[in-house]
Amino acid sequence: xxxxxxxxxxxxxxxxxxxxxxxxxxxEHNRLYWYRQTLGQGPEFLTYFQNEAQLEKSRxxxxxxxxxxxxxxxxxxxxxxxxxxxxxxxxxxxxxxQGTSGTSPKDTQYFGPGTRLTVL
Amino acid sequence: LAKTTQPxxxxxxEGQEVNITCSHNNIATNDYITWYQQFPSQGPRFxxxxxxxxxxxxxxxxxxxxxxxxxxxxxxxxxLSDTAVYYCLVGDMGxxxxxKIIFGSGTRLSIRP
Lengths: 120, 113
Fold this sequence. Notes:
heterodimer, A: mainly beta, seven-stranded mixed β-sheet, four-stranded antiparallel β-sheet, 11 strands, globular, B: mainly beta, Immunoglobulin-like, five-stranded mixed β-sheet
């Protein structure tokens, strides 16, 4: 399977603990995105990387959240001192830089299955 | 910021054609319209993308009027497996801020036998 993978798929933790999630994008994709999704809502943008550079961070990404993509391949999202409000599905997506021709889709994002975080 | 408005939910029956309309009154010149499908406990999946007029692929068609202030996703002959949430996104897809691409709450489509 050459799609986007995320680990772990589920994580249960106690409030105050640190958690780290990993995302492995499609190998030739330059861009990697992190989203958070709560029940009944669409994904909310958190941050994105182009290769190893973190180009944007949402205001949703508090100081307790940090993301890295050290070699421009896989990425990690760490949440420090978790709070119950952090409970959500964390989605990773990757995309090529842009469509290769005028008619191919622009920046189509390919999503992983997500990591469901429950903070007790 | 090109915000989109979609119906919260829709119901239909197997074999019917389903049309989901999305309003995006302040779409910008460089913006594309993209639709994603999401099943429970899975990440969204790209369905179709267009800029103007009509686009068709193996799973759906996308109709965009000349003023581009709305778009309609058309699913022909739906089946039970088309039950999902459908998101309409508007943005220039990679040429500017990724944070400006907003999923919204989507349309929850339920297909009945």
